Amino acid sequence: MRILQINSARTFAGGERHLADLANSLQKRSHEVYAALAPRSPLADALNELPAENIFRVRMRNALDLGSANHLARIIRENRIEIVHAHLARDYTLAAIAARKQKGVRLVFTRHLLRPLKKFHRVTFHFADRVIAVSRSVARSLEAQNLIAQNKIRVVLNGVDTERFKLRETLLDQHLLSSNLSASHLVGITGELLEHKGQEDFVRAARLINKRFPDAQFFIAGEDRSKTKEYRIRLESLITEFNLKNRVHFTGWLESIAPFLSSLDVFVSASRTEPFGLAIIEAMACGLPVVATASEGAREIIEDGLSGKLVPVRDVEAMAKAICSLLADETEQRRLGENARCAARERFDIKRMVDETEAIYYELVA
């Protein structure tokens, strides 16, 4: 098939990782995959399987950028695209306008988030042939908004390339751990620095954990991409207030997350709301025991007590207690870690995700 993936993101996050893995895998399966990206999008570097001439730069400033819609339509026409697949809400309308200009083109949207779409998307969704939800909770959110016929919604759970997380390392990179940061217990969290990601709750839990495990070190991987860096400043202030400056460390954005994850003893997902939880799966694929708040996505991924531990959202004391119980019990760490690794490979491997997405494409072109 000839497939165009559309993504106007200016930064690289979980949705962009999803698209890169999907596009690269489809290309390796002998499909002809193209990508329309924003100028200077970092996503281009991750599309290593696609020929350079298959990657197009399109302005895509907003949902009503008709010039970009015409540019997309030209790409679709000149490359005889059969499937147009858009991944961001602001791209759905542009993709719909562009696809409508070409006879026989099938239109697919992936919805990665839980928050409600705008009212004008009701018109846009009318032209979609399928909408893929990355979790059952996202599918329920779409159904509740009544934007599209339920028989057009498909659930395809996110997946990761578990081979990238196969080998377990024992130490964090040297730029993370110097001689004065040696520790016997390493606890980490990943994700963009945002209030709903719960890094503040992680810091509050670290304060409690540190009383029982004074040698523990806590790592926050990710960055605050806002202009004011207000949330990062708030976290730093809290760390100073709790006298944890030598215990809680920011790593910034990590190009490769696997070495970081594989060095930890416990991974934490502290999200207050989460449509899926790609970071959880990455940690599980590393064989890490996971403590996660019972967000919408985490409940679909983790079997409490079997492949990880679930705690109530925003319950800092419960989070700290669960982490402490794992730090104190290496046997339980290994048990949960191995169960998590098996679950990641069996339920969340990228091959399953690509198989199911490819099947939707074939269903449409048939």
Give a brief description.
It contains 14 helices and 13 strands.
> What is the count of β-strands?
13
Task: Determine the N-to-C terminus distance.
Answer: 11 Å
Number of domains: 2
Per CATH, the superfamily of the largest domain is Glycogen Phosphorylase B
Fraction in helix:
40-55%
Oligomer class: single chain
**What would you call the shape?**
elongated
Strand content: 15-25%
Rounded to the nearest angstrom, the radius of gyration is: 21 Å
State mean pLDDT (0 to 100 scale): 93
Low-confidence stretches: 173-180
Description:
Helix 4 links the parallel strand 4 and strand 5. 41% of the residues lie in helices and 16% in strands. It folds into two domains: 2-159 and 349-365, Rossmann fold (3-Layer(aba) Sandwich); 162-347, 3-Layer(aba) Sandwich (Rossmann fold), CATH 3.40.50. The protein has helices at 14-28, 43-46, 66-78, 89-100, 121-126, 136-145, 199-212, 230-241, 258-261, 278-285, 296-301, 316-327, 330-347, 350-365; strands at residues 2-7, 32-37, 55-57, 83-86, 106-111, 130-133, 153-155, 185-190, 216-221, 248-252, 266-269, 290-293, 309-311. With 366 residues, the protein is α/β, with parallel strands linked by helices. Helix 3 (66-78) crosses helix 4 and helix 7 runs parallel beside helix 8 (230-241). The protein has a seven-stranded parallel sheet with strand order 3-2-1-4-5-6-7, with helices on both faces. A six-stranded parallel sheet has the order 10-9-8-11-12-13, sandwiched between helices. It has 14 helices and 13 strands. The chain is elongated.
